[in-house]
């Protein structure tokens, strides 16, 4: 509520009739830090003034916390409290005058320190609830490689896993393969989960076993995924069969329509 009072005070400086909508929600942003955000909106009925405030907790651990309280007016940052500095900072001429008084107010500064402590208290909840490990979903398949000297390329993909670190290893008859192997980095999905793809260019021999070994924090031991050439062939047969069936159905329907049109267009002539 402290930040809300500051924002209202700022709008009153604009000589406008102001009203506000106040809501709290949590978001999480994972790069090197986690972000908790509390937001409220402020708007004025006159001249379409719009403002909003952000209360942010930035942290990488319980001992590394930065608390920020920010007020924006018409998309411009006006004032900010930074727990690292321990004071308010104004970013416009008008707000620089205001923060001089705010920094002399011990009650406001003490309240901001309490807000930082609340942020610190909620950190374990965020880590426990929102940072649970997620086991990867793995697919191993043979794809075409027109630009390569090899007729095909194996692709091992791991989807929707957390935490980020994962290791994919190619095995040929149980032995690790390191040549003709390329891999992407762990790619973010945008929902805090990751995916990765590894490629192996090789000419498989009859009876040869090609495997993708996956190591991740969610797995008690490495997990092996074997390529089954019969399943690939079976899928191709099914696809060809379905295509043939659909093509035959089209010919049957076309013939039926043609026959119906010819029979309905005939005119019966009576004979004497």
In brief, what are we looking at here?
This protein is an alpha+beta fold and 272 residues long. 31% of the residues lie in helices and 37% in strands. The protein has 2 domains: 129 residues, Roll (Class II Histocompatibility Antigen, M Beta Chain, Chain B, domain 1), CATH 3.10.320; 94 residues, Immunoglobulin-like (Sandwich), CATH 2.60.40.
Reconstruct the topology from this structure.
Elements: H1 2-13, E1 18-22, E2 34-44, E3 50-61, E4 64-73, E5 76-82, E6 87-90, H2 93-102, H3 106-130, E7 137-144, E8 152-161, E9 166-172, E10 175-177, E11 181-183, E12 187-188, E13 194-201, E14 210-216, E15 223-226, H4 229-265
Antiparallel strand pairs: 1-2, 2-3, 3-4, 4-5, 5-6, 7-8, 8-13, 9-10, 9-14, 11-13, 12-13, 14-15
Description of the structure:
With about 270 residues, the protein is an alpha+beta fold. It has 2 domains: about 1-130, Class II Histocompatibility Antigen, M Beta Chain, Chain B, domain 1 (Roll), CATH 3.10.320.10; about 135-230, Immunoglobulin-like (Sandwich), CATH 2.60.40.10. About 30% of the residues lie in helices and about 35% in strands. It is built from 4 helices and 15 strands. β9 (about 165-170) and β10 (about 175) form a beta hairpin. The longest helix is centred in the C-terminal third of the chain and has 37 residues, at about 230-265. The model is unreliable at about 10-40 (pLDDT under 50).
Strand order of the largest sheet: 1-2-3-4-5-6
What series of H and E elements makes up the topology? HEEEEEEHHEEEEEEEEEH
Helical fraction equals 25-40%
Name given to the CATH architecture of the largest domain: Roll
Number of distinct helices: 4
Termini separation comes to: 104 Å
Whole-number count of domains: 2
GO cellular component, one term: MHC class II protein complex
Protein name: Ig-like domain-containing protein
Subcellular location: Membrane
InterPro entries: Ig-like_dom, Ig-like_dom_sf, Ig-like_fold, Ig_C1-set, MHC/Immunoglobulin, MHC_I/II-like_Ag-recog, MHC_II_a/b_N, MHC_II_b_N
């Amino acid at each position: 509520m402290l930040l809300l009072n500051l924002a209202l005070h700022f709008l009153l400086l604009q000589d406008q009739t102001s009203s506000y909508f106040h809501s709290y929600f949590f978001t999480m942003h994972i790069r090197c830090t986690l972000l908790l955000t509390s937001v409220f909106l402020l708007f004025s009925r006159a001249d379409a003034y719009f403002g909003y405030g952000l209360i942010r907790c930035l942290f990488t651990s319980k001992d590394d916390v930065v608390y920020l309280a920010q007020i924006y007016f018409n998309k411009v940052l006006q004032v900010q409290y930074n727990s690292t500095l321990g004071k308010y900072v104004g970013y416009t001429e008008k707000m620089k005058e205001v923060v001089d008084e705010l920094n002399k107010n011990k009650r406001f500064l003490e309240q901001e320190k309490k807000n930082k402590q609340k942020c610190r208290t909620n950190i374990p909840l965020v880590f426990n609830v929102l940072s649970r490990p997620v086991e990867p979903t793995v697919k191993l398949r043979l794809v075409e490689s027109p630009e390569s000297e090899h007729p095909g390329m194996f692709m091992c993909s791991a989807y929707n896993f957390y935490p980020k670190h994962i290791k994919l290893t190619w095995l040929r008859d149980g032995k690790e393969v390191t040549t003709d192997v390329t891999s992407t980095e762990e790619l973010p999905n945008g929902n805090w989960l990751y995916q990765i793809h590894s490629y192996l260019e090789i000419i498989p021999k009859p009876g040869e076993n090609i495997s993708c070994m996956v190591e991740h924090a969610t797995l008690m031991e490495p997990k092996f995924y074997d390529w089954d050439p019969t399943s690939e062939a079976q899928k191709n047969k099914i696809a060809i069969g379905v295509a043939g069936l659909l093509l035959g159905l089209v010919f049957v329907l076309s013939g039926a329509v043609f026959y119906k049109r010819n029979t309905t267009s005939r005119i019966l002539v009576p004979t004497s």
